[in-house]
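Researcher: Can you fold this with fe (iii) ion in place?
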Amino acid sequence: MAAQIHQFMCLEDNFGVLIHDPATGATASMDAPEAGPILAALKETGWTLTDILVTHHHNDHIGGIPGVKEKFPGARIVAPSKDKDRIPGADLYVSEGEKITVGGLNAHIIETPGHTSGHIVYFFEEDKMLFAGDTLFALGCGRAFEAPAPVLYESCMKLAKLPPETKIFCGHEYTLSNGQFALKADPANAALQERMKEIQALREAGKATLPTTMAVELETNPFLRAGNTAIQANLEMNGASPAEVFTELRERKNKGW
Ligand code: ZN
Ligand code: FE
């Protein structure tokens, strides 16, 4: 049976996501940005929380854990091995290549250093769903806070190899502002222009722009297209390596192009 997903907003612009296995009743919360909305979502769906899958140590991803655990003390916390010190008290620490299960659902752990040094993402292979945390966003990527930008680029390229039909869930609703930057980086991209119209319509209707898919991101996300000659020419970086182009894009995004 396919996994069921419930997506909702937390804090300012964080996504909360519940992943439910109808066969076993198991339910995971992807990170725990804020306890109140997560508990409300569990009440609304009638699902019982069994797991909290943590991507990285930032407070807008773990700050809700104590409040959620108060109501669901049996929920297992899964966190990156590399962040044992910064996410103490997890029940299971996981590393690259390991697999976890949520009821009958299998998820692969992929380490994606860059935004933080210990960042991991969860790929549910059968359901072709990626929970990318703050590594990869729709039309963007996270800031490279704890590693040089080329390291984050390698992490993004690892994800780019997942099946194109993979659905991508991200930590934040940043798509509109990411898209405005993407249009500056890749102004002649017709697929990007089309997508931006859809995104604007969704946001005006107060709807989420996620999930996206890897196929759509490969076509429109400049951070996955650092090897594209039109983007290189637009940056006046003909002949530069994709990692150099990615680094330049990341710096321009930080400064506000
Ligand atoms: Zn973060
Ligand atoms: Fe975040």
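Model: Folded with fe (iii) ion in place. The first strand starts at residue 4 and ends at 10.
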